[in-house]
Design goal:
The protein has 424 residues and is an alpha/beta fold. Helices cover 36% and strands 12% of the residues.
């Protein structure tokens, strides 16, 4: 079966995490993604957090599936020529260099447009235009600047970053949507355009409900926050601990084994329509009619006491037993799954969300497959490329260079010393 983005060619000038997650998604949907890497080292993540001495790190392999790799020193004259040829043949350039890098290399938007007016140039930057536009940015900087850290954690503790990579992978997702949208618009305009996803903006977009709450603050205390009714609200959105953030109160409760297992917990939601069932399950039927507990409004000031009582019950069972029982009554809840438990979940393998991928130098490894499933464009996850693995193939088949051209390019040093020596 064909793939959704078949025929789209991406010049992947990305590195580290944010850009590579974007181009990996496009590759999974069928685009031909050509990753341009600096000779010798390549994407810095190839050697970061290495678990095996001479193999590409899991950091790299898990972010660069289904791509081809060409090494190119784009600061040399021949390297620039090859990059120009790639710009002429590709539909999209994706980059996440520090601000100004592409211009210093000689590839401003105007120059790229001269070479290929239909090219879409998609960039991740830390910040959009403004006081911080020139800053280099990594994941946690974006989490802090986008409002995630100030609204995560407990009220009596410091701001906290989250393990989910909302700054990097979250921005990659936003950028991917911008790219396919620009490709769609190009069908009618015939022109390329710039696509920018700033990490701060992407994190803020994911923190949308917190900006909602900032405005609600002006109209009285926010009753679903744990600060209500006994705590204090200041002039900004406080950290809400494990409160649900939606209209239905929730909290994380201990389950059997919590004393030794850091993940023996369940997220429990006291959803109003199933209040009767909740009371029945935990053996507090009197709460069904007791005016202090019978309505959501009456329960609000007693939420922590209610969660404490529910926890007395959840502590007698494993999180999976709690899950089984509550689900029978349609009471929303979710076990706190460890990465170990997730990595062993056969149902995730069955859907392709978890995949084992063979690799020539590191052996088989586990990765997250495409989380977005298209019924007419199924994803086959293939391993990340070795550094420069497809250099010759791309020069010859994509760019049409002949043996002599390739020899010239190689001799110029544009492909790097290693590649030149290997060819001799
Ligand atoms: N050939 C020759 N030179 C190359 C090259 C190639 N194939 N590929 C990259 N380079 C050069 C660049 O030209 C640049 O050189 P100059 O500084 O002399 O112009 C240099 O490599 C470094 O680029 P960089 O500044 O982007 O890299 P860095 O490691 O210093 O910074 C990062 C990394 C991520 C902080 C920065 O790229 C950035 O802020 N990117 C935008 C935001 C982003 O994506 N952050 C998320 C990263 S994932 O956590």
């Amino acid at each position: 079966m064909g793939k959704a983005l078949e025929g789209v060619r991406i010049l992947d000038f990305t590195h580290v995490q944010s850009g590579p997650t974007c181009t990996q998604l496009l590759a999974w949907f069928g685009a031909d993604v050509i990753k341009v890497e600096r000779p010798g080292e390549g994407d810095i993540t190839r050697s970061q957090l290495r678990d095996l001495p001479d193999a590409d790190s899991l950091y790299f392999t898990m972010l660069n599936h289904n791509k081809r790799s060409i090494t190119l020193d784009t600061k040399t004259p021949k390297g620039k020529e090859v990059l120009e040829a790639l710009i002429r043949t590709c539909d999209v350039m994706v980059e996440n260099f520090a601000p100004g890098v592409l211009e210093r290399m000689g590839f401003s938007w105007e120059r790229i447009q001269e070479l290929n007016p239909a090219m879409i140039v998609a960039s991740v930057k830390g910040f959009g235009p403004g006081p911080y536009q020139d800053c280099k940015v990594y994941e946690n900087v974006a989490q802090c600047a986008g409002g995630a850290a100030s609204t995560t954690g407990f009220d009596d503790g410091p701001p906290m970053v989250t393990g989910a990579q909302i700054g990097d992978s979250g921005t990659g997702l936003h950028l991917a949507l911008g790219i396919v949208t620009a490709l769609y618009q190009r069908k009618t305009t015939g022109r390329g355009q710039k696509v920018l996803a700033a990490m701060q903006d992407s994190v803020l977009n994911l923190c949308r409900v917190k900006l909602r709450d900032q405005q609600r603050l002006a109209h009285g205390p926010m009753k679903e926050y744990p600060q209500y009714p006994n705590g204090e609200f200041g002039d900004t959105v406080p950290r809400a601990g494990n409160a649900s953030g939606g209209g239905q109160p929730g909290w994380i409760l201990k389950c059997k084994g919590w004393e030794t297992d850091p993940n023996a917990y369940i997220y429990f939601i006291a959803q109003a329509p199933v209040w009767k069932s909740i009371c029945t399950v935990i053996g507090r039927e009197e709460w069904i009619t007791d005016p202090d507990y019978a309505t959501p409004a009456a329960r609000l000031p007693r939420l922590m006491e209610i969660f404490g009582t529910v926890e007395d019950w959840t502590k007698t069972l494993s999180k999976f037993e709690v899950m089984d029982i509550l689900n029978k009554y349609d009471i929303p809840c979710g076990p706190i799954l460890s990465m170990k438990e997730i990595a062993e979940d056969q149902s995730l393998f069955a859907t392709g969300t978890l995949v084992e991928v063979p690799h020539p130098t590191r052996g088989s490894y586990l990765t997250v497959g495409n989380p977005i499933k298209l019924s007419d464009s199924p994803t086959e996850v293939t391993r990340s490329p070795l550094l420069g693995e497809h250099t010759d193939e791309i020069l010859r088949e994509v760019l049409g260079f002949d043996d002599r051209d390739i020899m010239d390019i190689r001799d110029s040093g544009a492909l790097g010393l290693v590649e030149r020596m290997a060819a001799e």
